[in-house]
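Supplementary Methods S3. Complex input for the cytidine-5'-monophosphate-bound model.
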Amino acid sequence: MEKKELLYEGKAKKLYLTSDENLIWVEYLDQATALNGARKDQISGKGELNNQITSTIFRYLTQRGIKNHFIEQLSKTEQLVKKVQIIPLEVVIRNIAAGSFSKRLGVPEGKKLIEPIVEFYYKDDQLDDPFVNEDHIYYLQLAKPEEISELKTQALAINKILIELFAKVGLVLVDFKLEFGRSNGKMLLADEVTPDTCRLWDERTNEHMDKDVYRRGLGDLIPVYQEVYNRLSELTEEK
Ligand code: C5P
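Predicted complex, serialized as structure tokens:
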């Protein structure tokens, strides 16, 4: 497999074409952003940790029947994935009130939700990723009604698996964001699942074990991400 030209540079990773038109070479970067890119910092070691964490999680999801883009981890910072047409939606699943949900609805952070809540945001930097409902998604032709319900079903199934996975390593999955893509008419989980895209609270201490450490200026991100990786890798290596 040969790495070819740069296809896209995002906030936390670079995507390259490969000698196989169906595969993409992903490189995770040592970069953290907040406020839709308005705040940006180089954080040495972050790319490596995120790549290792998301690779571990995608392997775990594959074993549990979740269709996704992951092929293999190539190095500490790189992985190979299937090329998909990304659906421009951020699918957010919430188990406990936090972040924008708490702010918008006045629900105190930490309040457990009766049922998981699925939200959609339109991925558009110019518009600051606005909250959209199913009618908006349909109107904007981002997904068909049956795809919207599949997104929800998939998101809730992934939520169940991840709640259990993180609970096994003493972490509470507060909320997280997923992205999906289409490949040969099938919907695949794509992008990443990392502490950049999940809120994880330590079960015992309630400490933030995710990007809120950076967003809220609570300290150094690396030891926190390292701890998440250590716990996950100990668990998955045992099997
Ligand atoms: O900010 P908000 O409370 O809406 O975030 C909900 C979840 O989605 C958090 O886990 C956050 O890390 C994730 N998220 C993300 N990328 C965004 C917005 C939110 O990964 N652009």
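The mean pLDDT is 96. Residues 90, 92, 98-101, 129, 175-177, 197-199, 211 surround cytidine-5'-monophosphate (CB under 6 Å).
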